[in-house]
Amino acid sequence: MIRVGLAKGRLCESAIKSFEKMNLKQVIDLNSRKLVFQDKENEVEYILLKPSDVVTYVENGVCDLGVVGSDVIMEREEMVYELADLGFGKCKFSIATLKDNENILEQNFIKVATKYPNVAKKYFSSLGKEIEIISLNGSVELAPIVGLADCIVDIVETGSTLKANNLVVVEDMHLVSARLICNSVSYRFNKPTLVEWVKNLKEA
Amino acid sequence: MEYYLKNLRKRSQTREAVQAIIKNSGYLMMETSYFEPYDTFSKCSGRTPKEKTVKVINNLGEIEILRPDITFNIIQELSSLYEAPKQLKLCYDSTVFENDLVEGIKEKRQIGAEYLGNLSIEADMEIIRLSCQVLKMTQDSVLVIGHTKYLEGLLKEIECEETFKLDIKEAIYKKQPLLLERLLTTLNIRTEIKEKLLMLLAVENFDLNTYGRGFMNGEMRIALSEIGFLIDNLNQPVEFDLSLLSQFDYYDGIIFKGYNKGLNMPIIRGGRYDQLSGLFNKSIPAVGFSVEFEGLMRSVEND
Question: Are A171 and A193 in a shared domain?
């Protein structure tokens, strides 16, 4: 039995479609409150998880595979193998700030609010910038408005949330998309199945 | 109390069983120092990260570390004694130390063997066979074999800073094909080299022939011929993966890791490390393996 962790939320429906491409049966009912679904025929079990937990479950080997955004993978820096870019959930890691404050990056010291402290730290240190990180769990757009931070680092899909809060992107950092990840030990024991799935995924 | 004694008995039996496998092939038990100077440690970057070592201060106020691995220790100790072309078979069963960032100082038992002074692939085969024998103590395990010279050969063809090459290795170690591709597009390198690097991370069944096609240099040929020799002669259930890397930077040649299905880390690590003795101005061909004893215990219990 191979166990797959799926990130609940915006990626889930597309993830299910991807598994259809791998010639797997559709057994997941998103309208129910169940969190575990079994496809006995193909010996696959799906579990629905919080996106940031998918990496934890896969890293610890509780899930063999996982579907999660590369934003989460980059932030967590854990040892999980990446098997394929699933091509959906595309967005960008960007630096955004208040309109009329666009030359923020020229400042020597910057206060950055984000849900992704590791990604932000790495990026700014590659620019040689000194920053202070303010870790938040949500609504980061609020931080520059109320003066908690000079700018934010967040994933931007359409930019409408930024616009609504009078923020503009000053720099794009990385591209983000959904990935199929695998536990490093599980990879060694399920290689033939994984090869087949990835092949089907690419050909579909 | 009953459980405690049962556990002690089991540990003792398992240790004896592993030791027996190694000693029966003529390996002599050796003991090395628990300490090593911090300076020598830093020379060999890519071993345990600095923050994970346990530091102590000696009577002269100098920093020493409690050994993070034993192989390095053995080579250090023998470097002043060794005379070529002597062949030595040594083994150990002792403790290494790690400063876990969450759990504090951890003591970990390692049992292993080192075959010194033998350059031939026969020595690699002997060490791999011993590893397979230890792995057979558990069910559902696999030994994965790679070769550092294939990747080193490819990296030699790229002109960039060493730190950038470490980034490339890190992407391969963590099997992150998209990150690797992004790193490579920032460099001006030949398409054939780039394709071969990306091929290392393709999710495909291992086929030696595909790695031999297109661009090849000396290092890569050595890697493929040695892997080919193992495929033909090893007669053990093993897997091959040329993207296999170790966090210990001293391996140079055949490299391998043994996994158990129920355990989330390798229980066996090993490979050839001829260059390590160069740090002490010696040249001692060497190949060896070590068993993470706690991992092995848990795998044996899982069965």
Answer: no
How far is the CA of A134 from the CAs of A110, A168, B13, B86, in angstroms?
11, 19, 53, 60
Q: Is the CB of A82 less than 8 angstroms away from the CB of B177? A: yes
Q: What is the least distance, in Å, from the CA of A143 to any CA of chain B? A: 30
Burial of residue B271 (CB within 10 Å: 0-12, 13-18, 19+) is buried
Please report, for chain A, how many H helices and E strands are present, in that order: 8, 11
Highest-scoring range by mean pLDDT, B84-88, B141-145, B236-240: B141-145
| Domains contained in chain A, number | 2
Does B178 contact A82 at a Cβ distance shorter than 8 Å? yes
CATH number at residue A128: 3.40.190.10
Span A107-150, pLDDT tens digits = 888 999 999 999 999 999 988 888 999 999 989 999 999 999 99
Integer-rounded Cα Rg, in Å, for chain A is 19
Give pTM, 2 decimals. Answer: 0.89
Asked if B294 and B16 touch (Cβ cutoff 8 Å), the reply is no
Question: Which residues from A are below 8 Å from B174, CB to CB?
Answer: 79-82
β partners of residue A154: A94
Give residue for tokens 């057994």: A27
Q: Which residues of B touch A70 (CB under 8 A)?
A: 178
Domain coverage including residue A45: 2-89+177-203
Structure ipTM: 0.86
Predicted confidence (pLDDT) per residue in B233-242, tens digit: 998 889 999 9
Whether residue A57 is found in the same domain as residue A116: no
A95 and A172 both lie in a single domain: yes
* Domain ranges, ordered by start, for chain B: 2-149+218-302, 158-216
Of B221, B222, B160, B162, nearest in space to B194 by CA? B160
Q: Quick one: A18 and A79 in the same domain?
A: yes
Closest by alpha carbon to B201, among B229, B182, B221? B182
Say yes or no for a CB contact (<8 Å) between B142 and A188. yes
Residue B82 to chain A, least CA–CA distance (Å): 38
Per the document, the length of chain A is: 204
| Domain range B2-149+218-302, CATH class | alpha beta
Same domain, residue pair A57 and A103: no
Distance from first CA to last CA of chain A, Å, rounded? 24
